[in-house]
């Protein structure tokens, strides 16, 4: 079995770090990095710190508008897929790299396997929602992390090739020990603190929302560690919001390594985030989680009382942190979603070979 896997953004390096090693026990894997993320702290740090194999192709597409970025990826992927002719193209999540990979493969009649299929925010203003819906409608195999994801696909008439495997991110998270050094470096040992991340386009690109979120973070009852995504850093400068982060309450740091991030998620009093991955991980740690959005694809976290949606308005965030009592329920280790996916790909290959 030959598989081409396509990655290119931070959460995809992290997912490939658990999937690629097992996949390589079953298949010849060719890894393509689109280069959507290229800053050391968004890409190289994961190649160095996690078991992500070096890419066979590095497309170096870089940043651009959605259309141009996706188009450049398609142009670069087309001849490579034509040459490699794999049995499967594996794509992860909901980024422009995901959609470009799925579209390039399906035009060449190469079956697509989508890891993290079926998630929906039902908000088509999000670029990620467009990417997910289209990728799921192109995929032959749809590996769902939750029951809700399976239901979402059924609502869209997709039932064939759908497999409920669980979230591959859990495997790495469960097997990553703390790095106590990061608490020492940030002078947070035995001190209450909150952790926050903000990078969604709908928040960062709206100056009023971004200002409200930064103000709310600065007014929390704990010091807040804020590893700043480059997109957010750029928007803070562009909208002249630097004064809102120049407060001793906010510890602005560069994006962190996966292990440092996991450590902070486990030790924080609260996590405030608009990230899909971070909300899942914080709940897994049993840390109260405030989602800085109006909807989430991970509805189970709200239903179980581990997380709350608190939007981007100052008062709503403040009130949620003051008044919402969230359930601390660390989740037990999952069964093995990675093995479920790899063995299913092998079965699919065997049945067509
Ligand atoms: C992308 C994904 C988002 C995912 C996130 C993970 C899409 C549409 N969005 O968002 O779903 O949650 O990655 O982190 O695919 N930039 C840098 N250095 C980099 C990369 C980006 O400075 O290495 C800056 C550029 O100014 C760029 C902006 O960040 O224009 C946005 O980058 P982009 O990859 O387009 O989207 P993200 O916001 O990172
Ligand atoms: N992450 C990290 N360092 C950071 C911020 C996030 O390693 O500074 C990890 C986080 O633990 C999670 C993943 O990146 O595993 C989530 O990626 P991101 O928030 O960029 O994207 P999303 O999940 O929202 O698509």
TrEMBL record:
Listed InterPro entries: UDP_GlcNAc_Epimerase_2_dom, WecB-like
Record domain UDP-N-acetylglucosamine 2-epimerase: where: 27-323
Keywords, ordered alphabetically: Isomerase
Domain of life from the UniProt record: Bacteria
Xref: Gene3D superfamilies: Glycogen Phosphorylase B
Molecular function GO terms recorded: isomerase activity
Family per record: Belongs to the UDP-N-acetylglucosamine 2-epimerase family.
Record-linked PANTHER family: UDP-N-ACETYLGLUCOSAMINE 2-EPIMERASE
NCBIfam families attached to this UniProt entry: wecB (TIGR00236)
Name the record gives this protein: UDP-GlcNAc3NAcA epimerase
Source organism of the structure: Sulfobacillus thermosulfidooxidans (strain DSM 9293 / VKM B-1269 / AT-1)
């Amino acid at each position: 079995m030959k598989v081409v896997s396509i990655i290119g953004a931070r959460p995809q390096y992290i997912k490939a770090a658990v999937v690629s090693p097992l996949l390589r026990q079953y298949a010849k894997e060719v890894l393509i990095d689109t280069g959507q993320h290229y800053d050391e702290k968004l890409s190289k740090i994961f190649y160095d710190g996690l078991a992500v194999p070096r890419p066979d192709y590095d497309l170096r597409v870089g940043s651009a508008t959605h259309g141009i970025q996706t188009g450049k990826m398609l142009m670069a992927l087309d001849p490579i897929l034509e040459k490699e002719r794999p049995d499967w193209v594996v794509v992860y999540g909901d980024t422009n790299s995901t959609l470009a990979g799925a579209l390039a493969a399906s035009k060449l009649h190469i079956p697509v396997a989508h890891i993290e299929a079926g998630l929906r925010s039902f908000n088509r203003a999000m670029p990620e929602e467009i990417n997910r819906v289209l990728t799921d409608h192109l995929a032959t195999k749809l590996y769902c992390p939750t029951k809700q994801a399976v239901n979402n696909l059924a609502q869209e008439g997709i039932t064939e090739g759908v497999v409920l495997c669980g979230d591959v991110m859990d495997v790495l998270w469960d097997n990553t020990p703390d790095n106590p050094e990061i608490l020492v470096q940030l002078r947070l040992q035995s001190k209450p603190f909150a952790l926050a991340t903000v990078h969604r386009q709908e928040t960062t690109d709206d100056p009023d929302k971004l200002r409200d979120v930064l103000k709310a973070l600065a007014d929390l009852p704990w010091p807040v560690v804020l590893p700043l995504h480059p997109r957010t850093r750029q928007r803070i400068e562009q909208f002249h919001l630097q004064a809102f982060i120049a407060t001793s309450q906010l510890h602005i740091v560069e994006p962190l390594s996966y292990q440092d991030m996991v450590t902070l998620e486990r030790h924080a009093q609260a996590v405030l985030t608009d990230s899909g991955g971070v909300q899942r991980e914080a709940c897994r740690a049993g840390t109260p989680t405030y989602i800085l959005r109006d909807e989430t694809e991970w509805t189970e976290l709200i239903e179980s009382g581990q997380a709350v949606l608190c939007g981007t308005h100052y008062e709503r965030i403040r009130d949620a942190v003051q008044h919402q009592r969230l359930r601390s329920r660390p989740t037990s280790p999952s069964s093995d979603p990675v093995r479920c996916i790899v063995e299913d790909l092998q079965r699919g290959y065997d049945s067509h070979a």
